[in-house]
Amino acid sequence: MRKLFFVYLMAAFSSVLAQVPVGKEPLAADTLAAASPESTPVLKVKWGALDSLMSSSTDTTYIINFWATWCRPCVAELPHFEQVRQDYARHKVRVLLVSMDFAKDIEDRVIPFVDRMKLKSTVWLLNEPDANSWIEQVDTSWSGALPATLIINSARPRRMFFEKALDYETLARELSYFIEY
Q: How do 122-126 and 93-99 pair as beta strands?
C-alpha cells in the first residue's frame, strides 16, 4: 500500500513537471499549487518525496526548512525564508517549508497559518509519524529539534545543515557558497 502511494505521488509529481517550460526548474509543489487554483496550498507528503528531492541530480539549490506552527523560533524565521525566495527568484534557488505539524491538523491549523502568514514558498506537511526512520537521512547530526534547515545542491555536490533559527543575513551568506553568478 505504501509503495502504491509513493508511485501515485511520483506520477502526479512527474505529470505536473512535464508541463513546466524547459530551462525552468520550479519545485514540483510550486507547480502543483499553481496548476490547480482550488487545491490546498499545503501538500501532504511522505518521506519518499523529500528523499527523492534531496537525491535529485538537478543543479537547483534547495533550502529545506523544517518547522512547525507551534514553534516560536520557526515562526519568527519564516519571513527570512520568504525574503530569500523573493530575492533569489532569478537564481536556481527554491525554498521548501516542511511543516512538522500533525497530519490531522493540516486543515484546521497549518493551512490557516500559511494563509495568515501569506507564505508564497512551497509548503509541504511531512506525514511521517516515525521521525527516527528518516531524521538521520536529512543529516546525521540532527537531534530532531526545530527549526532545522538543510541547504542542498546535489549536482555540485554541496550540503549545509543548521539546527537553529536562521536570519536573512546568514541565509544569504550560506547561499553564496551554492550560487554561481
A: parallel
How long is the chain?
181
Q: Which CATH number does the domain housing residue 151 bear? A: 3.40.30.10
Q: Residue 179 and residue 176: Cα distance in Å, rounded?
A: 5
127-168, pLDDT tens digit by residue? 998 988 999 999 999 999 999 999 999 888 899 999 999 999
Question: Which of 63, 66, 77, 79 minimizes the C-alpha distance to 27?
Answer: 63
Q: Is residue 56 part of a domain?
A: yes
> Each residue of 40-63: pLDDT tens digit?
589 999 999 999 999 888 889 999
- Residue 42's Cβ-side half-sphere holds a number of Cα atoms within 13 Å equal to 26
Nearest to 97 by CA among 159, 5, 176, 27: 27
pTM: 0.78
The answer to whether residues 165 and 147 touch, using CB atoms and an 8 Å cutoff, is yes
Cα→Cα distances 34→30, 142, 149, Å: 6, 33, 25
Residue pair 143/131 in contact (Cβ under 8 Å)? The answer is no
In a domain, 180, yes or no: no
Q: How many CB atoms lie within 10 A of CB 106?
A: 19
Domain with 78 in it: 2-175
Mean pLDDT of all residues belonging to the chain: 82
Q: What is the CA radius of gyration of the chain?
A: 15
